[in-house]
Amino acid sequence: MMPNRVRLAEPGRQRVVEAIVQDAYQPWVAIVGGRPAPLDADYGALIAAGRVYVTGEPEPVGVLVLTAEATTLLVENVAVRPSSQGRGIGRQLLAFAEARARELGLNQVRLFTHEKMVRNLRFYAELGYDVTGVEMIVGGRLVHLAKPLGPDAGAQDQRRAAPDGD
User: Fold this and answer.
1) How far separated are the first and last CA of the chain, in Å rounded?
2) Average pLDDT over residues 85-96
3) Are 102 and 96 in contact (CB under 8 A)?
4) Within 13 Å, how many C-alpha atoms sit on residue 73's CB side?
5) Of the residues 26, 80, 90, 166, which has the fewest C-beta atoms closer than 10 A?
6) Burial of residue 155, with CB atoms counted within 10 A of its CB: 0-12 exposed, 13-18 middle, 19 or more buried
7) Domain total for the chain?
8) Is residue 1 part of a domain?
9) Domain boundaries, position 54
């Protein structure tokens, strides 16, 4: 089943976004020994700044928070309701982030997760994200990951299909 389109979160959807984040991160509180930062983010301000995206119809089931940096797109948060996990929504959201980074002319996507979120670390590795560093935080370590973005795959396909002039 292909998830629905990814779109900017509308200001009136703040409570829905907060509920998705709460549902997605609450199970991790006991595992990591504290509240993951996305649980305490100001989603009203993030939505107003145009940094929050959602997917799912008729109600959103996935959330993505992005921040453009000088050469990198930071994925501050990717969250999927537990009842909707395993359906490709997280993959869709990260693919959207990669496409958005390319649109912005950025050369990589980066993110971070707690070292005890082993399932997430495996997921990111499957998608081509490599560990770039580890940061000590209260209650453990934060693992930083990044995925370099090469030229647009569509442009590469067009170049391969074009005659070489010989």
Assistant:
1) 44
2) 96
3) no
4) 25
5) 166
6) exposed
7) 1
8) no
9) 6-161
